[in-house]
Amino acid sequence: MGEPLYEFQPRNKVVKWIDYRLPIFTVMHRELVAYPTPWNLNYLWNFGVLAGIALVVLIVTGLVLAMQYTAHVDHAFASIDRIMREVQYGWLLRYIHMNMASFFFIFVYIHIFRGLFYGSYKNPREILWILGVIILLLMMATAFLGYTLPWGQMSYWAATVITKLFSAFPLIGDAIVTWLWGGFSVDNPTLNRFFVLHFVLPFAIVAVVFLHIWALHRFGSNNPVGIDASGPQDKIPFHPYYTVKDLFTLGLVLIAFALVTFFAPNYLGHAINYAPADPLQTPAHIVPEWYFLPFYAILRAVPDKLIGVILMFGSVLILLVVPWLDRSPVRSGAYRPVFKWFYALLVVDVVVLGYGGSQPPEQPWILINQIATLYYFAYFLVILPLLGYFERPKPLPSSISKPVLGGGAQPAGAAAKPMEKA
Amino acid sequence: MADTANTGHGGSGDQQGSGRRDFLYLATGTTGAIGAAAFVWPIIDSMNPADDVLALATTEVDLSPILEGTAITVMWRGKPVFVRKRTQQEIEAARSVDVNALRDPEPDKARVQKPEWLVVIGVCTHLGCIPQGNQPNEPRGNWGGWFCTCHGSHYDTAGRVRKGPAPKNLPVPTYAFVDDTTIEIG
Hints:
The complex is a heterodimer of chains A (422) and B (186).
Chain A: H1 3-6, H2 13-21, H3 24-34, E1 36-38, H4 47-66, H5 76-85, H6 90-118, H7 126-148, H8 153-164, H9 173-181, H10 188-219, E2 235-237, H11 238-263, H12 293-301, H13 305-317, H14 322-325, H15 339-358, H16 365-390, H17 401-405, H18 411-414, H19 417-421
Antiparallel strand pairs in A: 1-2
Chain B: H1 14-45, H2 51-55, E1 59-62, E2 71-76, E3 79-85, H3 88-95, E4 117-121, E5 144-148, E6 153-156, E7 161-163, E8 175-179, E9 182-185
Antiparallel strand pairs in B: 1-9, 2-3, 3-4, 5-6, 6-7, 8-9
């Protein structure tokens, strides 16, 4: 009975003519309109689409900003000032670009934590998950590179400190840093290459996002129950059910975004970055943007330079092997009574790390950061593997419909139910 | 859409329900389209001239060093403007022409404020090359004005096109005499 919803039957002759030769409309219809989606997805499943929209907004605003920006140490700061004061709507475009970068991270972090709770990384979605971690890494690199471009004090010192991380590696460390800089300090060659990379990496992200969606559509979305759909009655077409739901969330999120962009555009930034870069003076209190704070806290948790750097990179890279660290066959955390609590503690832990990263490296924050770092790694390396053996999961329902409808699946009524929900 | 007014009464008939859906669908779509346009406009407008570019729209020129029969080139809005002090002979040549026989009919008097001073934008109206004739060693074309070497357009001593592919005369920019020896272009 669901079949007509999923079939593509073009009426327009031009569409038919093109589609016969290049079935692009069929593919788009199959992946973006008909795409069968579990009908029990909750609002946490909206954040992938939101992240994609944020990426598009960043690329579009970034494109026109790049037309006004000058990647030269003598002109970069002034060119940003010119964007703010002279270019038509330049202030708006820059504030959108700045704050949408933050919102992109908010969306992606929620997206990742959703995946961690509902076991979205588990068989057969390991590659989907790994591609997501690669997107996160590319995002972090792009955000850092973009932050250096205004060539303010924080830009300059962020560029210095972050590139200096690589000097921790024995023997080749200093050579790597010199190579990254293209000189013996962060200078014009550095700014030039950072601009080129900041421009090109988002397109690499688009390419990986494409693979990410491809891998997602291979088996379809996971769902809050975490079991596979038992048949077509468990799925509904993506359009209009999830397009409208995504658009609704987008509306809410854009209201929040507009409030930040228009009323507190610099709230998430640092005032000192409105002072031009000075290679002879470091700002007194130097912290990264908020989305790097948990990792920054991990970097500073141990007094050893090399181990700190390894732990920081490791805290992201460890996500790559989560599908094999988690030994539990149950996907959804809703059916894992013990996991649930450790997971909640992980969320708190990352928030604590984020706050700890913003504090000066003094007691009690040194100790708190150390404990939080320990728990972060223990969660992935000890708790996840052990829970698979010791935890006794709750019995899983026989179908997606069961826990919602309270009875057995009712194939005949399934098509009508989602409409009630939507 | 006509029955949308009725939908508020809480009727659950099919017709009323679909009318309300149509209304919501159109209202949502319209709001979304306006929102998208409001986002797109700043992006497009940012590529227009910025305020500092618009602020540079006037240029002052000191006329005192220009000798009779010679011309200088000044920059205005990123383009060359020819300022030429014409000889009596050149003025007469420009004024003795049958205006109606010209490709772009314009009397010389309409193109100058003071007969000896000719001010024109030095961009060929064909495809935008800079015509030659301001330097003493450059060709001035068959009518003693300017000659565009790109595609062979000839301009006379009033900057009017006389031969070649150019469709229009060299345009006269807005300018005013600040005093006897200074003009402000723009």
